[in-house]
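[job 0412] stage=fold_complex status=start
inputs:
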Amino acid sequence: MMHSHYPDYPKEELMHSGHLACQGCGGSMIMRHVLKALGSDTIVVIPACCWTIIAGQFPYSSLKNPILHTPFETAAVAASGVKAALDIQGKTDTKVLAFAGDGGTFDIGLQSLSGTAERNDDIIYVCYDNEAYMNTGIQRSSATPIKAWTTTTPADDSKAEMKKNMIEIMAAHRIPYVATASAAFPMDLVEKVKKAASFKGTKFLHVMSPCPPGWKISSEMSIEVARLATETHIFPLYEIFDGERYNITFTPKKVKPVLEYLRLQGRFRHLTPEDVEFIQKRTDFDWKMLNHKCTLEVFEG
Amino acid sequence: MPDEKAIIYKTLAEMPEIVISQASMRWNHTGSWRYMKPRHLNKVPPCNHGCPAGNDIEQFLRLASEKKFAEARAVIKQENPFPRVCGRVCYHPCETACNRAKFDAPTAINAVERFLGDYEGGETVKPEREASGKTVAVVGSGPAGLTAAYHLARMGHGVTVYESKKKAGGLLRYGIPAYRLGDDVLDAEIADVEALGVKIECGAQVGKDLPFDELKKFDAVFVACGVHKSQKLGVEGEDAQGVMSGLEFLARVNGGERPAIGKKVAVIGGGNSAVDAARCALRLGAEVELYYRRSRVEMPAYEAEVDEAEEEGAAINILATPVKINVQDGKVVGLTMTKMALGDPDESGRRKPEPVPGSEFDVRADAVLTAIGEKGDLEFLPDGVKLEWGKILIDEFGLTSHPGVFAGGDIAQSTQNVAYAIGGGKKAAIAIDRYLGGEKIEDIGGRILIGGEGPVSVSRYLKTGRAHAQNDDFHTVVPFEELNLNYFDESERSERNTLDKAARLAGFGEVNAGLTEAEAVRDADRCFHCGVCTMCDNCYVYCPDVSVRHKADGSWGYDIDLDYCKGCGICVYECPRSAMVLEDE
Amino acid sequence: MKKVLMGNHAASWAVKLSRVQMISAYPITPQTQIVEELSEMCGSGELKAKFMKVESEHSAMASCVAASSAGARVFTATSANGLALMHEVLHWAAGARLPIVMVNVNRAMAPGWSIWTDQCDSLSQRDTGWMQLYVENNQEVLDTVIQAYKIAEKVLLPVMVCYDAFFLSHTYEPVDIPDQKLVDEFIPYVKRKNILDPQSPHAFNSLAMPDVYMEMRHKIQLAHERALDWVEEVDADFEKAFGRSYGAVEAVQCDDADIVLVTCSTTSSPARLVVNELRGQGMKVGLLKMRLFRPFPVKRIKEALMGRKKVIVIDRNISFGKGGIFADEIKGALSNESDRPEVYGYIMGLGGRDIVPEALKEIVLEVNDMDAPPEHAIIWKGLKP
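[job 0412] stage=fold_complex status=done
writing structure:
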């Protein structure tokens, strides 16, 4: 075991084999890592998303933790409700995890997520972001990146809008902990989930979740593509404490051009050199802004 | 919860009142979704394939990185009796082959080998088998002869080595100067060979002190007598006093003599013997001019040796060759040289040097050391041993055209160096063992040839290595492109410490000091372990289907649960070192 | 203990007496006093409950579903558009078989904006699987909320208690507040099986394939059928404990009546006056007060209405393109009976328009003179010409 890259990776498996995720699904890896970090005394709330299917049909479950399936737009508030019920019954140690896709987070679930975050209800919210409505067959969401192909943003009319900056929206709620993470960086994810669990209040993790069918990549490239998202700075890994103290948790050894990330994916195949140049410029700018935020003074009260 | 079984409800009453799970999804054997099947499979690291001596480099580096020095040393000794020698004089083709060379700088394999060879402690090597009662004669105690003797003794055979010179070691003792390889180092490793029961009879030249026929009492003979006859320059004045072959010069210096060579010495040749002769001459206080007829890149000597000779003050003159040795009173006084130009490529592929008309020039010299090539003395061999290009004709495993007679090392192999000699000795030892057992080598070659060709593995032959290694893919060498470089960081290679110029020229002290323990461990840890699982856990951690698992009993390796593996291939792609394969169902 | 309470406060008191553990609600006129008073009760500690002040009714119901799934006794209250926004989650509450109790203060649906009463909001939720009870006065509000917990927790169905905006919600009436100890004995908190519990982990509300979905729906229907009896049992137990009962329906002087007025909610009160007045004039008139709407008490309705000549149903609601919903339901309940009475459906009081005794009296007299219900089945009463 001398060379294990993951000496601190929790051993207990809380996700069963036999689940219904596609080959190479980032969402299933993320669930496994997150549950390992939180442990068995955790209740999982799942709104409509790929995990509605992955978790298995009645009368089965692919998790060893309790699961509450809830309507699409209610992940956060349902988690709040579970937590409220646990608290009033004195079960204060049990953790509540909302595990939602980008549609359920960025779009239809944004209102209830905002409500939960504003009340600072004591839950952990993990958004596994595969950047489109994958479970319904790859329709654009507000998490879909600019220029990406989806079935509702066809190649000759690809998405004109930038991906919504969800992390900043959550940070603006001044909740104790907001972080990005990626399926390609499991220990970073595990550590962030553990860190999140140590805070009281609403914790939000935005996790890059590669989707082979939706991104038009072959399944074995899942981690490679997600890793490139971070190494190109398209999806940097960082955390924000109390909505204002920024910390970058991973700095690539070598920053790669965004083209390396884009060219591996069928959903970007139609991009022109000008498109790529824009994405590169925008990415560089966002990275600069993020680094700038890391230097900002924080409120001392 | 009941596990593994699907639930079929036949009646309303059996069904729960609410939509609530009653069992896990483990009944759902998602392995049926799979088109390709992953498998852990160790392959051949390029260093191992690149080592003519067939060292299991990856394994000894791994053990060294864990500070298991005695075990690491034992791994080398499974294949090679001379880690201390090789750690000093091998030109390390393993490092040329090392995939790390394409990443930052190769792992300092040779220096780590030296560190391990010098490590004191650990068990001495013992025979692996009971005495067979069979006997083998070995002609020559150079690296090929002693390596064959060493492995044959480990295989239980009685071995007698015949050596013409006063001491054993051959080229290692008489051809390599002490500043590269000291006698004490060589003596210690020869003692290890003798400790296995190998008898070495020195001062016994086969063909002179005893006829070849006397060897017929042995069950097999291995000829590894080396090449000792220097080639002549073929120019006027070659017989004058002060003209000496490089080999003779080196042998005398290594034997402790200090031949009178005067103030100015000219060395002719571009090989290792020429460079060694030049460096020895420098240490005897001479000014040294080395002349080579082709250009620098074509010098057969190892680049590092040429560099070191230059550092020590030798002048390297290229595209120059003597046309005449100038003699006065029977003594050398100088040479007449001609400049050379490179023409079209010759049969060796190198551009052929041709004299430049009218470019002759004279140089002064008190001595001329010639080192333009050596030949073997093959007259003692019996009829039926076929020759080719002045060497003994052998097959891949050292068998000559004479039954029971095997050959290896410089007298038989086209590439003349220590590592190849050791490799030739190993192959012959295995071939002789098969021959003595009445078995054919062809039946086993595929299993022991590293990378399907080239060097062989004795530990694989004797099954003394890692138990699971018997199932490895011993044919596929892992190319750089197969590695997943995301898991490797650039790191600086440990370089050995060397003596400064003044200290070097003051005597024959060892120029290279080797690595400290910390440096050796650090560089061993730089190894990529190409093609060999290190249990890094990438496959286990990334599996989206929780199908790659540690062994239940905690033993080495992983189990892949094919009942559930969907064949996504992530484990294979993310394996940093290509120690997995994706196969058709 | 008697107190003079507005209907909304009667609801709050019932919630407090029921020792509800978790409340999640969003304010909407005319429900606001419920959440205001419950906030004070929770704030002061008289009610040891967690009150989630959520950002919408959708979230209110979603959090109630979640908290109930985790084993808590929960409550929410809403009206009109708030109830409509909950619609998706109402299905969820019933489908998950959660004993949630909700007060819906009946308010007309926009547009145009109306804060005044009618029943289109709650009747639009008829098919969600919720039980529905419509109550007549503030005492009944308090008593029915307490009863609702006992009903819901037995049959594992959510219960909606509906009453009229302003006519009850904001109207003060004397209300008897039962003794807490008696309420505790009446609805003791019993930990439910099958709740979210890491010690006994299950997945709830998963994907149901066609081979199982229908059976799970059938079980909801069976629960509603059981609830018909259970509502009356609970009511009988309540009477024993507190001296008041209401029944699934209340039949007043129906036995010998030629004409029966069918009403619900506050409309029943003027109807009682009309029945008394016309009985005094010798007309054989009765009243059937519909308290339980889901499950629909077909048996009790037949008992009260079979043998009568004419039935008048007053609907403060309309199913557009069809007619009054209660009238339609009652016709449906009687439709397989060969000697069924004629049913006269009246639409009135929409959007808070008063339903006064005089109008009800006119209707009875008008129907008394009719030979048969008009061809066009809907009769609008009080509509401008």
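[job 0412] summary: Residues 273-294 of chain A form the longest helix (22 residues).
[job 0412] exit 0
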